TrEMBL record:
Assigned keywords, A-Z: S-adenosyl-L-methionine, Transferase
S-adenosyl-L-methionine found in the keyword field: yes
GO molecular function, one term: transferase activity
Organism, as annotated: Alectoria fallacina
Cited InterPro entries: Meroterpenoid_MTases, SAM-dependent_MTases_sf
Pathway(s) where this gene product acts: Secondary metabolite biosynthesis
The protein, known as: Methyltransferase type 11 domain-containing protein
């Protein structure tokens, strides 16, 4: 099992929070998924399951294309990508202090994958569900500050070829 993040500090914080340093057997790779020269390259074509929770939506549209292309590089036929992320109806790119983030609905999420399939010559089966954020356990006060139309996307994406 491998774990990766751009920041080792978050990994260390997880050990403190869960008190599992002696039991967590995953190998941590500090890297940006967008850095083609990072140590993630050693996993090219080897990953069976990828978990991407609250991650892909952190990027603008083109950044998401790059992230998913990198996921394709790490995957092989049969790889399953599971996750969830913020969504918006209608879809919208929002400016944040660190850059723009694109929030999909089901249709644009599928269009994103269609583009990646064409550009990588891979084929993926998408199971995508748009959900109300209350399904993730968010309370009304958690949602009040969010923009109108804020939703979530749950996804299971399986590589066919």
């Amino acid at each position: 099992m491998y774990a990766s993040d751009i920041s080792r500090e978050l990994w260390e914080l997880g050990f403190e929070l869960f008190n599992d340093r002696d039991r967590m057997m995953a190998k941590f790779i500090q890297a940006s998924i967008l850095d083609a020269g990072s140590d993630l390259g050693q996993l090219k074509g080897m990953i069976d399951v990828i978990i991407a929770n609250q991650f892909i939506h952190l990027f603008d549209w083109e950044g998401q294309v790059s992230v998913i292309k990198r996921i394709v590089e790490l995957s092989k036929p049969g790889t399953v990508l599971i996750g969830y992320q913020g969504a918006k109806v209608p879809p919208e790119e929002l400016q944040r202090p660190w850059g723009n983030m694109y929030f999909h609905d089901q249709e644009t999420f599928r269009k994103l994958w269609q583009r990646v399939e064409l550009e990588t010559r891979s084929k993926w089966d998408l199971d995508v569900k748009l959900v109300d954020l209350s399904e993730w356990g968010m309370e009304r006060e958690d949602l009040d500050w969010m923009p109108e139309g804020r939703k979530g996307i749950n996804f299971v994406v399986t590589r066919q070829s």
